[in-house]
Amino acid sequence: MKRKLANLKSTSQLESLPDDIRTSKEAFACLLKKMSYLKDKKAVEQVTKAYLFAEEKHKKQKRQSGDPYILHPISVAIILTSFHVDVASLVSGLLHDVVEDTGTSLEEIKKEFGETIADLVDGLTKIGKIRFRSNQERMAENFRKMILAMAKDLRVILVKLADRLHNIRTIDVLSEERKLRIAKETLEIYAPLANRLGIYGIKNELEDHCLKVLKYQVYKEIATSLSRKKKERELYITEVRDILAAELKKYGFRDLSVYGRPKHIYSIYRKMVVRQLAFTDIHDLFGFRVIVESIKDCYEVLGVVHSMWKPMPGKFKDYIAMPKANLYQSLHTTVIRPNGSTAEIQIRTFDMHDICENGIAAHWSYKEKHKSPIKATDLEKFTWMRQMMELQRELKDPSEFLAAVKVDLFDEEIFVFTPKGDVKQLSVDATALDFAFAIHTDVGLTTVGAKVNGKITPLRSKLQSGDIVEIITSNNQHPSKDWLNYVVSSKARNKIRSYLRSEQRENSKRIGRTLLEHELAKLHIDLDKDLRKGKLDHLIKNAKESGIDEMLIAIGYGKINAKELVHRSFPKESKDPLVSDQPSVTKAPARTKTGGKLGILVSGLSNIMVTFGKCCNPLPGEDVIGFITRGRGVSIHRDDCLRALDLDPARKVEVQWSDDQESSTLHTVTLKVVTQERTGILADVTAAISNSGVNIRKAQVALSPGMKGVLEFEVALANLQELNKVIKTIESIRDVIFVERKNHSRRH
Ligand code: MN
Q1: Dist. CA 84–CA 316, nearest whole Å
Q2: CA-CA distance, 90 to 47, in Å (whole number)?
Q3: From ligand 1's centre to the CA of 72, what distance in Å?
Q4: What is the pLDDT of residue 139?
Q5: Under 8 Å CB-to-CB from 292, ≥6 apart: which residues?
Q6: Distance from the CA of 169 to the center of ligand 1, in angstroms?
Q7: Higher pLDDT, 690 or 596
Q8: How far is the CA of 103 from the centre of ligand 1 (A)?
Q9: Cα 386 to ligand 1 centroid, rounded to whole Å
Q10: pTM
Q11: Which residues are part of the catalytic machinery?
């Protein structure tokens, strides 16, 4: 029996332009060498033409480092060769900046290189103009545009990711401010995107560069620890691999290929954050990988492994039977060896390996038989992309779209079954209620109970991969506000939210109608009759709402004062003198705090009563939004607060921090500091906080088993700058792993 195991090099490293190459000729020669997998002569001709074209166009430009600009597009093309991409991708990599940066027209590109290339460059130019700044709405709108540009031809996103990767590889020459902006944007948008598309090589490298920029101390700590343990690690890898190979050989498998995967610093950092672990359990940082010919072989190897070593319960995952949304397939298991150490093993076929490493990129790789580019129809295969497309059609409010996308970008998946055996893919932490919405919205909205593996279970209980879930519904059931606390998926949240909102709007409309009718009756005006006669058109106009319903809702919410509106619209008929000419939003009674005192302006006014959302504790300097509440004035939230997203946009009012900081209000923020174990570290951190002039209101210290210190400080701060300063100071202390602002309503 022929049983071959792959003999591949260690974890794939992406291609790059060698550091010592500084001239365009040498750089291009390097590209030609790396694209030698493209066997046909025409490819070389086309790429050469694109190179000459781009060099001419960029000839007056220099990079920040002083290098000729053309080195950038060439480097991007070189990164692309890592994926064995087709000629069109390489050409558009070379041309990606000519339209945006040199004013070359798309027409010219089309004439020289044809329609496909022109379309790709157009997509890249559009994405290139997108800046994901802190303003949530703009960021969301831009993300939408990006999804749309990608949907036309996914090669666009691969080139864009390569572009971003090269920019971040060469980020050192930029100013501190730009570095931070680019690193944040990359970590929030591009790295998760690469992850979702399964392009792990790019994702990993992007993340490591970002960590280095954003948390240099942490990055250094981990990198040093890694190199210190190198010997130990290599010994461990050889030992496990030899045992594994010897055993598999008995069953006819040869040339076992084993990978250590310790290089990705960011994933180690994430483990430290999420599981609050310190850099101790080095075995957890490595994986072994067995690559075989057929699916049947995969399961056989698994059988062999499990007969040698005991599998760790709950760690076996069959991504062959149930591929991830990005088409990733593999068997995963973690085993316990007799000496107590653990080893994580992945088993897959050659074909799967290609997709595992390169994700979506594997699909238009030149060596594939069907080398046609991915079109929108192929998106069907990518569940996640399809969901994004649906979501962007469904959600009209851009910030809601962004919130939804962010949740989905980061979450891992579990697989759950219907009683009939259909599989549903949900995010980790999904509940029975999420599952109900995954089946159908109508099922979700009328869910009364669930049976998990045959047992009645509360709706809020978390599901595990492999659970069989049956949903019980009733037509008398309706969603309540609590439900928002039970679900994690964006679909379920959105459906519940929109149900609650429409219910709320109906209520407000009724209240608004009563209030308005009451005021109009005093002038002998009948709302319905006179509305039909067109007598009330100017009333609606004065209310600055788009129609009668919107106006009634605004009155019901207290955004518009009915009395004031009627007076203003019928000044002659109104006999009562108007008491108030101020906006209708609750004005502060004598003893409560006004926005002005707290440094907040509501619609430009300082005398409106405000409260700060306890869920997100906004600080001066952060983008904020306000919502009208009943009886508590306007509540102020950070504009990325998830709790605030559950509130009705109809209640939203414009708020901003006032410039003159007459208010000396201090805001309470909780900081979480995770540290290595060291005597005196608490004293160091406490001193650092006090020295930056910030008061500690409360402190809490905890040590978790087998790990490090978790310190929590409640501090009083004036604004965002102060917060950033304190975080930076703490982070620079030796042995501090990371500092985080604790947040009640954000999930990441
Ligand atoms: Mn570029």
Answers
A1: 32
A2: 7
A3: 7
A4: 58
A5: 3, 4, 5, 6, 253, 298, 301, 347, 348, 349, 350
A6: 12
A7: 690
A8: 14
A9: 27
A10: 0.65
A11: 100-101
The SS3 assignment for 450 reads strand
For 564-576, what is the HEC assignment? HHHHHHCCCCCCC
Please check whether residue 12 is in contact with residue 24, taking contact to mean a CB–CB distance below 8 angstroms. no
The predicted pLDDT at position 150 comes to: 67
d(CA 118, CA 112): 9
Share of the chain above pLDDT 90, in %: 20
| CA dist 554 → 118, 347, 510, 571, 636 (Å) | 48, 59, 11, 21, 19
- What residues are neighbours of ligand 1 (ion), with CB under 5 Å? 97, 163
How far is residue 256's CA from residue 246's CA, in Å, rounded to a whole number? 9
Query: What does the alpha-carbon distance between residue 642 and residue 15 come to, in Å, rounded to a whole number?
Result: 40
pLDDT at 375 over 50: no
- Whether residue 578 has pLDDT greater than 70: no
- Say if CB 551 and CB 536 are below 8 A apart: no
Q: 512: closest CA among 535, 481, 543? A: 543
Closest by CA to 373, choosing from 88, 35, 122, is 88
Tokens representing residue 35 in the block:
């694209």
Long-range pairs, 413-418, Cβ under 8 A, ≥24: 413/324, 413/325, 414/463, 414/464, 414/465, 415/322, 415/465, 415/466, 416/463, 416/465, 416/466, 416/467, 416/468, 416/469, 417/466, 417/467, 417/468, 417/469, 418/468, 418/469, 418/470
Contacts of 494 (CB under 8 A, 6+ apart): 394, 395, 400, 404
**What distance in angstroms lies between residue 152's CA and the mean position of ligand 1's atoms?**
20
In three-state secondary structure terms, 270 is: helix
- Partners of residue 348 on adjacent β-strands: 291
- Residue found under tokens 């401010």: 177
Region class of 600: left (phi > 0), else alpha (psi between -120 and 50), else beta: beta
Q: At residue 691, does pLDDT exceed 50?
A: yes
Higher per-residue confidence, 524 vs 152: 524
Q: Render pLDDT for 634-645 as a digit per residue (tens, 0 to 9).
A: 889 988 777 777
Instruction: Give Cβ neighbours of residue 333 (< 8 Å, ≥ 6 apart).
Output: 302, 305, 306, 311, 312, 315, 316, 317, 344, 345, 347
- Both tokens of 366, joined, read 């030149």
Tokens representing 697?
Answer: 């209101």
